Amino acid sequence: MTIDTSPQTNTLGNWASLGIQKYLTKVLSHEAAVLQDQDPEELHQMRVGMRRLRSAVTGFAPVVDLPKAASDDNIGKIARCLGELRDIDVMIEALNNQYYPTLTEAEKPTLDKVLIRLVKQRGKAFKKVRATLEHKKYQHLKQDLQNWLDFPVYTAIEKLPILEVLPDLLLPQVSELLLHQGWLFGIDKLETESEPTENSSQETTPKKTITKKKLEKLLTTQGDVLHSLRKQAKRVRYLMALFTDFYGSTYQAYLQDMKDIQECLGDIQDTMVLEAVLVAILRSDIKKSLPTLSNQMSQKRYESWQIWTQLQRRYLNPVVRQDFHLTLLRPPLDSDR
Asked: Which helix (H) or strand (E) is 305 found in, with range?
């Protein structure tokens, strides 16, 4: 987003309007194509826009007085409806293009049955999306948000300069991320190195790497924790993305980390969801009915896990966490950029 340097636009209230307008526009630009249901990418982009809109509404909550129809809960319900259809699209695409060609001839008929069932489920999910987008609740959401943007209503802090309050806006979401229990997922014990390292004189790190077998067990019993961490990283990413023009390269690096965390944990979550769907449809142990596919998903999870452990180690480093905070606390002045 390009900064307008006029005093009026550089207030907290006006940046709240800019953020909400940006993401609402993204949502509306894909709505018609989603209802035509010809390109899955349109659904994906509308879902992303809805999620980003929700992050903006949540992040700017201290300064905006939005109509009831534009509440976080209402936006979330619509996003989840779009998400159900998007998840099925992702599963069908992965099964058809990524997994099906690698299966044995004996396994392919079983997967054919799964694909037939998923196509039927997709038809039902699309009807639900269409009904949601045509429902008065969604129509009220769009209209009320547009009316608000035409005549925004703020709280008393709207005139505060954006540069002065950016840290206060960003740090609550970042702190919630850094305090998430998901960072300790898969770690039985932390050790503090006594010798100085390149990045820290006292770095807290995982004691050892877990095996693939243990990872599968942990994901079965505690996978929701990682999924929750991923959602918080996504909220931080979407909020930070609004303010890239106010910061420098270090900020951009942390923003890229948020994207990497979201995508890495998303790859793990996608295979977990797909496996659960396969079990529900086949009503059998897929290790027996689809052994090749089961092994591939397990391997993909473990490969994503290896990437995740690097990010996990990075954000368990107290120096990195402190630097993240300090980066947000010091948005450079115009003269410094």
From this structure: helix 291-315
Q: How many helices (H) and strands (E) does the chain have?
A: 11, 2
- Residue 1 reports pLDDT greater than 90: no
Q: Output the 3-class SS for 156-219.
A: CCCCCEHHHHHHHHHHHHHHHHHCCHHHHCCCCCEEECCCCCCCCCCCEEECCCCCHHHHHHHH
Q: 331 in helix, strand or coil?
A: coil
Q: In terms of Cα–Cα distance, which of 243, 286, 318 is closest to 95? A: 286
Range of the structural domain that residue 219 is part of: 162-186+203-337
- Residue 191: inside a domain: no
pLDDT of 80: 95
Q: Do 266 and 240 reside in the same domain of the chain?
A: yes
Residues 190-248: pLDDT tens digits? Answer: 654 433 344 444 445 555 678 888 999 999 998 999 999 999 999 999 999 999 989 99
Residue with tokens 């490969």: 303
Same domain, yes or no: 254 and 143? no
- What domain count does the chain have? 2
Q: How many Å apart are CA 106 and CA 112, to the nearest integer?
A: 11
Question: What predicted TM-score, i.e. pTM, was given to this entire model?
Answer: 0.85
Both tokens assigned to 107? 């396994």
Q: Is the pLDDT of residue 4 over 50?
A: no
Residues 6+ apart with CB under 8 A from 233: 177, 258, 261, 262, 265
Residue that the structure tokens 């992050």 belong to: 55
Helix axes 162-178, 212-240, angle to 10 degrees: 170
For residue 328, which of 166, 172, 161, 177 has the smallest C-alpha distance?
166
